[in-house]
Amino acid sequence: MSEWDCFLAAIVEYGADPTPRLILADWLDEHNRSDEAELMRLHVALLATCCEPDKHPERVRQQARIVELLAAGVRPCLPRQTIALAKGTDMTFAWIPPGTFLMGSPPEEPERDEDETQHEVTLTQGFYLGIHAVTQAQWQAVMGDNPSYFKGKNRPVEQVTWEDCQEYLTKLSQRDGKRYGLPSEAEWEYACRAGTTTPFHFGETISTDQANFDGNYPYNEGAKGAYRRQTTSVGRFPPNAWGLFDMHGNVWEWCQDEYRPYGQMNTENILEIEDIDENARVLRGGSWFNYAWYCRAASRCRYAQSNRVSGGRYLIAIADLNCLSRRLRQPLRRTILADKGTRRLRPRSQRANDRGVGQEFVAPSDKSTVHRCFVSEALGLRKCFEDNKLPPVKEGPQ
Predict the structure, then answer these.
(1) What CATH code would you report for 80-320?
(2) Distance from CA of residue 335 to its chain's centroid?
(3) Strands (E), the chain
(4) What is the Cα gyration radius of the chain?
(5) pLDDT per residue over 350-365, tens digit each?
(6) How far is CA 348 from CA 6, 10, 24, 25, 355, in A?
(7) Is the dihedral of CA 382, 387, 178, 252 positive or negative?
(8) Helix, strand or coil for residue 319?
(9) CB distance 374 to 392 below 8 Å
(10) Are 232 and 212 in contact (CB under 8 A)?
(11) Partners of 152 in the beta sheet?
(12) I need a labelling partner for 208 at 20 to 30 A (CA). Which of 45, 171, 238, 395 fits?
């Protein structure tokens, strides 16, 4: 396992704990990748304050800088998984760590609907989510047909029902044994927001340079823009801070769960779906023919699951991944020993008051083997073990 792969594995393993992400940001700085390092630090800061936005006025500046970096082509350095569907056709998933966020919209948000009551939701398990809606090439590779009206292999598939999506997921799972699924409504909004609390992950408004919607009807005093009258290829517009494209506009995206008022939903770990009205499923994200306010992160659409309207993006259930996603009982620092010898890699913010904790360790004689040392800040204990001897996966929060 390379030093880079070790970083990415640590990000998944630590779940909501941002320590490995801050360590990776330092590593990126050391390797002259300062823009990627800045993006990671800003995103960590945004996630840390997303449940109390009014107490943190610095969020406006942080979010604006994130949008600027992403528009300039800087991309987040986060774990991904790619599966091959056919020759030349792959599907890529981005890691979304567990966390807590504000779901819905505040009362003062323009053009909001009554079913968007804002409430706090906690997702205790991370998941991998498709970086964009399923393309026509990806659909064709699994299903053998293409029902879309606007043809193009890199355009999102449309004219598919929720039931069609379930069939697609079943066939996809039969290929490699993993469990795939549509995201729950909470998972979708959490992934879309990426730590933001504004109507769009871009900010208070949105333009047709950022998403595909009916630009004749902008949002919140935004400028009018193009109305393309069709879908566009996936990945054409800047992503959010997780590296997810087209979360606003282009095509509506099916969610797994049925539509219901937020008052009837749990506020923690909304992963188990209990069908109440199987004929009314949730759609999210808006589309190319919608006004801008339908594309807001909190906007909800209720639609019969047998209607042909949209596509979707799929997730891999974390229980089926050969990696860890757990919360550690103590704050830990990480030292990674790689081919170069010893290297103490910790967030710079934690280096000032070391007081002897987190000493450098001598690399093993077999320098092709990457070891990881966890050093407890509270107790000063060490645990060294090889990557191929990681503890067994434990489901749920710890």
Answers:
(1) 3.90.1580.10
(2) 26
(3) 80-86, 89-96, 99-103, 119-123, 127-130, 180-181, 253-258, 281-284, 301-303, 315-316, 332-337, 371-376, 382-386
(4) 21
(5) 544 433 333 333 333 3
(6) 19, 18, 11, 10, 14
(7) positive
(8) helix
(9) no
(10) yes
(11) none
(12) 45
Please state the pTM of the whole predicted model. 0.81
Nearest alpha carbon to residue 77 among 28, 125, 31: 28
Sorted by sequence, the CB contacts under 8 Å of residue 249 that are 6+ apart come out as: 211, 212, 213, 285, 286, 287, 288, 290, 295
Interatomic CA distance for residues 291 and 190, integer angstroms? 22
Which tokens hold the place of 32?
Answer: 């002259």
Query: At residue 254, what is the residue type?
Result: W
User: For the chain, which residues make up each domain, given as ranges?
Assistant: 80-320
Residue 298 dihedral angles phi and psi, to the nearest 5°: -95, -5
Reported as a single tens digit per residue, the pLDDT across 5-38 is 989 999 999 999 999 999 999 999 999 999 999 9
Task: Residue count of the chain, please give it.
Answer: 398
- Tokens describing residue 281: 């499923």
Q: Is the pLDDT of residue 376 over 80?
A: no
Three-class secondary structure assignment of 326-383 = CCCCCCEEEEEEECCECCCCCCHHHCCCCCCCCCCCCCCCCCCCCEEEEEECCCCCEE
- CA separation for the pair 137, 143 (Å, rounded): 10
CB 150 within 8 A of CB 311: no
How far is 278 from 276, CA to CA, in rounded Å?
6
